[in-house]
């Protein structure tokens, strides 16, 4: 299956570099480009990509607003946000807006290709170590309404589901969750699928954000 990718960045050189990288993979196809978040929605409608690589910092419309807009479309593409810094202060907002993860712009080409494949399959593309770094960086008290909403949603889980969610919030992979809870990886995957449904989220990053928000006083 060919994965269709749309590039959204106000720097033509960045777009050109990403196009070269992605075009080197036989299963990836760059179907279009947009030079600003304001053009991203129209480009998604025109090209119907599976994955959008979205710059965060753009002049006319930032990547956070554009991410929220394209994720409201039906069907909605997966979004990977691009940032210059691993702990960009806007990354968490972009993830809350519906992005499936983020990449720093100096990510090696092979990892960019792997990330697109992972997010196209519905997985998150933030590694466990980066998840821990990101959530720790944004560990200041969030808005109280986010805390209440996260606590309410997590309260619907069984004890075992809450244990799995907490482990994901700490950045654990399926294998690490399985080892720590003495479960098989297949059982962990089943729990993760139920978490997606019960918490109304689309990937592991959003589970981690909910756990993070619920733990903040």
UniProtKB/TrEMBL annotation:
Domain (Response regulatory): residue spans on this chain: 4-120
Signal peptide per UniProt: none
Residues with 4-aspartylphosphate modification: 55
Source superkingdom: Bacteria
Sorted UniProt keywords: DNA-binding, Phosphoprotein, Transcription, Transcription regulation
HTH luxR-type domain residues: 150-215
Any one GO molecular-function label of the UniProt entry: DNA binding
Pfam families found in the cross-reference section: GerE, Response_reg
GO biological process: phosphorelay signal transduction system; regulation of DNA-templated transcription
Protein name (record): Response regulator transcription factor
